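Working notes for the structural subgroup meeting. M.R. asked for a predicted model of this chain before we commit to crystallization trials. I am recording the input and output together here so anyone reviewing the notebook later can reproduce the run.

Input as submitted:
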Amino acid sequence: ITGEASEQAAGSISPDNPFVPAEIAATAGSDVSWDRLFVELGNVITDNERETLRTWAGLQGTAFDGNWDWDLSVGYGKFKQQQLRRNELNILKLRQALDAEYAEDGSTIQCADADARAEGCVPVNIFGYGSISPEAADYIRANPTITTNISQFNVLGYMSGDLFEL
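Returned structure, recorded in token form:
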């Protein structure tokens, strides 16, 4: 892990981050490792809506004077799932929000990356329960939608009987 923001893992931040308590920064090496729950984002919720259709049709009979049996069937199935996940963590935005610095005024804390700031980056303070502001939580929260469509078509058939008698 390096101190470069583009390569920085979400579980570590620079000791120069303005939110890092002085006691931690004084003993930290090149980065500060951390782990925490993001309760400020809310409970992770997954909603699934699924539809399944499956049909089969077939015919069977005999041939060649009743010496052969045959069977032919066709099957079709379709599955669709729409999944909405709420209050997930957007790891890319979290990395941007953890790369914080003081602004030119010396007191305002801002995201270090100017492009991230232009996109609405809000710095995240991970130190303390409930320390992430509602604005920062909104910035790092993700609500992805996953859509799955699967279909299958099958044709099955067989014939059985004696070819010749020994």
